[in-house]
Design brief:
7 helices; alpha/beta
């Protein structure tokens, strides 16, 4: 799964609709910023950390996901797709990048497929917090981040997708996701746009 880091793009390139998250009903999703993905995650780490700080300052809850399998037979289709290269829970590869430093108030949710909603407590967590909007950050832009964003949209959440706090293996894939999500699923934001939350 892991590959070279993708780079970032401004939200302005593909923006069709303009909107800011409402801190009263939003949550930040930090998708799979794990040691396994460090090659692509570390270049965007400053933007992810800045986004986390901005959201905490606006009293927006932060929810981390970790992609990890309990065994090779846990969701075997992914093992087949990635030629057995999967992240096993309990290994260093499955841990969040240490610099992220989740705090006690943060949720950390394990998933074993691309969507953070599938067979996880994420939706129950969002409902308990009164969340109606999600801000998506993390890796990989075109896989777990995009799948989670699309599923959030079809479940009725307003979706905001970060252009500079997401990354993937290839710039073309990153750009394709931004263009597609802006067309049909999500408002695009970046750390500069989110600074308006504190204004």
């Amino acid at each position: 799964m892991a590959a070279a880091a993708g780079s970032c793009s401004s939200y302005k390139k593909y923006e069709i609709r303009h909107r800011l998250p409402d801190p009263k009903i939003a949550a930040l999703l930090v998708i799979d910023m794990q040691n396994y993905f460090s090659a692509m995650a570390k270049p965007i780490l400053p933007n992810v950390l800045a986004t986390i700080r901005l959201c905490r300052a606006a009293s927006i809850p932060v929810i981390f996901t970790r992609h990890a399998h309990s065994s090779p037979s846990d969701n075997p289709i992914l093992g087949e797709w990635w030629n057995g290269d999967i992240i096993l829970d309990g290994t260093p590869a499955a841990d969040l990048i240490p610099d992220l430093g989740p705090v006690a108030a943060d949720e950390v949710i394990r998933k074993n497929t691309y969507s953070a909603f599938r067979n996880t407590p994420l939706e129950d967590c969002l409902r308990a917090k009164g969340v109606e909007e999600v801000i998506v950050t993390g890796v990989m832009t075109n896989v777990c981040c995009e799948t989670t964003a699309r599923e959030a949209f079809v479940r009725g959440y307003r979706v905001f997708f970060s252009t500079d706090a997401t990354a993937t293996a290839d710039e073309d894939l990153h750009e394709a996701t931004l263009k597609t999500l802006a067309y049909g699923f999500a408002y695009l934001v970046d750390r500069q746009r989110l600074e308006e939350l504190s204004g």
